[in-house]
User: Fold Phytanoyl-CoA dioxygenase family protein from Paenibacillus lycopersici.
Amino acid sequence: MDPATKPATRPFEDATPLLTQPEELRKVAAEKGYLFFKHFFAREEIMEMRSLLLGILQEEGLLDPGRPLLDGIGNQPVIDALSQEEVNWNGIGTTRQVYHKVQKLQQFHAFAHHPKLLAMFGALFGERVFPHPRNIARIMLPSEELKVTPPHQDFLHIQGSADTWTCWAPMGDVPRSLGGLSILEGSNKAGLLGVTAAEGAGGLETILCNLGYEWAEGDYEAGDMIIFHSLTVHKALPNREPGRVRLSLDLRYQPVSQPIEHASLMPHGPFEWEELYEGWTREDLMYYWQREEFQFLPFDESIRWQKDKIC
Assistant:
């Protein structure tokens, strides 16, 4: 793309000072549709999770055996032998076999219950937080067959409460060149936008009709995270670092008083909780939503296409 025609972007602003100012935190979140936090997690705990995830890739022969594990360098001949269907399965950037092992990790699901996350979302919502158990890992292999996630709004896919927020946390350093997350600042105020079919995770792309918003993006370090509203448009940047795997977690939260769609209580992927829980030691992480009294809203397939339109 000609630099002269490249869309304008703005850098992320660190919202950490707002953690002690709940009213201002809520005000800025409502205005921007997202909040970025620098060094929210300890680097050591992120690198521990990174090691667990990369260890699974190593078991499957998908990492270069001659490089340090934490470098996350792919075994390119093995990756290149994977089909387009394999690397684009379920929008998570890796194979079903790898993802099944990830979903069985108690430590992966425990991360969504991090005390700092629950405290921060409690301040944002002004009430008790409910972490969705449908946790997602993005394990994006360096494959030319992998499709980049297009601009989209999460609400079309999760439904339930529009006040659901996603935490996107990179598991390692993710500069823009590795394909971090970009946010269309303020787009949460535009409501539910039109979509068209697209390749990449989710299979839908938001139609951006000269809304006047700017993209916000930046380089992430291990420990940084970003949270965004379910109507905030966001997208992945392309991975321009040959051979490097990109790891991140998508964790979702909502006020416990708000309605929910039943699929948000199911595992991400065609798996069953009973099987995933084998070997777990923390009963507090298992079926914890059964202690709540939710209002369930049915999934409305029609809203995914009723706004299909061209600008």
Summary: The first helix runs from residue 22 to 32. The longest strand covers residues 246-255.
